[in-house]
Amino acid sequence: MTITPSFSLEDVAKAKMPFGKYKGRFLINLPEHYIVWYRNKGFPKGKLGDMMGLVYELQLNGLEDLVRKLMK
């Protein structure tokens, strides 16, 4: 079974945190400790949580620059 995300890397590059301490910051630029905290707590439901999960995986593997290049 293949799961197709409802967003693209371009969507992640444009996405900003809509609430909290880092409101307005691009998801890809959220501090790693914050993303890890959410990973342990549980990401929000829906598209935002899915994108934060991808950001977690990108940061874990040192691939944030893939998204940052799309921001330009």
Plain-language structure description:
With 72 residues, the protein is mainly alpha-helical. It is 51% helix and 0% strand. The protein has a domain at 30-72.
Question: Which descriptors would you attach to this protein?
Answer:
mainly alpha
Question: Summed up, what is this model?
Answer:
The protein has 72 residues and is mainly α.
What gross morphology would you assign?
A: globular
Please outline the major beta sheet.
Answer: none
Radius of gyration: 12 Å
Mean pLDDT over all positions:
92
Which runs of at least 5 residues are low in confidence (pLDDT < 50)?
Answer: none
Structural class: mainly alpha
Give the fraction of residues assigned to helices: 40-55%
Distance, first to last CA: 34 Å
* Proportion of residues in β-strands: under 5%
Number of strands: 0
Instruction: Count helical runs.
Output: 4
The ordered H/E elements are: HHHH
